[in-house]
């Protein structure tokens, strides 16, 4: 499997990956095209040796780490008004993979690619993104705790949250929680801003 910059011929397949991973919240053809047009090297795909696309991610460059919602931080997922070519902070806009991507660790490979092109290259000082927290709602109902208590728990240095844990295992550290970051019932709409440098 390789991670490579996406091109126009990939748009339909990427939309298919998004629909499998995100259902009704999938990125539209228009959002996918705009992200690629505004910041070409920020949109990448994971491709198997037989040519099939199994993963997709997009990113933008910004000048500050924010606690606003994903919608505001990404200009409704288009990055038209939020990407700054001279920005020194890379912000992960989206990531998705087909279920078969698990055997290739698509998420880890995409994160490594972004690390290489943004941090290792010294183009940016920090790579950041907002993780959903899909384990939070259930934990809250069972334990009657709040978001800070949820995030404070550590198991061998990793969060109890499955999505946040994926990012921590790939080098990210927690900065802060963001209420109403992204509409997601399981996360009670919370997100966690995370960074690596
Ligand atoms: C995140 C994603 C791209 C990772 O793909 P992948 O590299 O093929 O890896 P997997 O799907 O096997 O996930 C890796 C681990 O992360 C966990 N994970 C990641 N996102 C998760 C989520 N939203 N909910 C629950 N667990 C999640 C998995 O349980 C798995 O844990 P394990 O290694 O302990 O089994 C893929 O799971 C996906 O497309 N998810 C839906 C969209 C999404 O949540 N994107 C990330 C936010 S932008």
Question: Short summary of the structure?
Answer:
The chain is an alpha+beta fold and 197 residues long.
Structure description:
With 197 residues, the protein is α+β, with helices and mostly antiparallel strands. It has a domain at 2-124: Gcn5-related N-acetyltransferase (GNAT) (Aminopeptidase, 3-Layer(aba) Sandwich). Helices cover 32% and strands 23% of the residues. Strands 1-2-3-4-5-7-6 form a seven-stranded mixed sheet, with helices on both faces. The longest helix has 15 residues, at 106-120. The model has no long low-confidence stretch (mean pLDDT 97). It binds coenzyme A (COA). Residues 21-22, 94-97, 101-102, 105-108, 132, 134, 162-163, 166 line the site of coenzyme A (COA).
| Record field, number of beta strands | 7
Q: Give the biggest sheet.
A: 7 strands, mixed
Q: What hetero molecules are in the model? A: coenzyme A
- The low-pLDDT segments are none
- The topology string of helices and strands comes to EHHEEHEHEHHHEE
* Spatial strand order of the main sheet: 1-2-3-4-5-7-6
Count, helices: 7
Q: According to CATH, what is the class of one domain?
A: Alpha Beta
In angstroms, what is the radius of gyration? 16 Å
> Roughly what fraction of the amino acids lie in strands?
15-25%
Helix content: 25-40%
Q: Quickly give the CATH architecture of one domain.
A: 3-Layer(aba) Sandwich
Overall SS class: alpha+beta
Shape: globular
Between the first and last Cα atoms, what is the distance in angstroms? 25 Å
Instruction: Say what the CATH topology of one domain is.
Output: Aminopeptidase
Give the CATH superfamily of one domain: Gcn5-related N-acetyltransferase (GNAT)
Query: How would you state the average pLDDT, rounded?
Result: 97
């Amino acid at each position: 499997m390789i991670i490579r910059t996406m091109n126009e011929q990939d748009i339909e397949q990427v939309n298919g990956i998004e629909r499998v991973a995100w259902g009704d919240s999938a990125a539209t053809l228009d959002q996918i095209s705009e992200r690629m047009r505004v910041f070409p090297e920020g949109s990448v795909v994971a491709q198997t040796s037989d040519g099939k696309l199994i993963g997709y991610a997009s990113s933008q460059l910004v000048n500050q780490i924010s606690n606003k919602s994903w919608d505001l931080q990404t200009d409704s997922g288009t990055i038209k008004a939020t990407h700054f070519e001279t920005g020194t902070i890379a912000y992960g806009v989206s990531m998705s993979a087909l279920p078969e991507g698990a055997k290739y660790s698509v998420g880890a490979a995409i994160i490594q690619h972004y690390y290489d092109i943004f941090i290792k290259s010294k183009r940016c000082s920090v790579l950041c993104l907002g993780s959903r927290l899909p384990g939070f709602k259930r934990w809250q109902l069972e334990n009657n705790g709040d978001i800070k208590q949820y995030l404070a728990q550590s198991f061998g240095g990793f969060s109890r949250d499955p999505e946040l844990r994926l990012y921590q295992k790939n080098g990210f550290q927690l900065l802060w929680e963001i209420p109403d970051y992204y509409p997601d019932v399981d996360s009670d709409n919370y997100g966690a801003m995370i960074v690596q440098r």
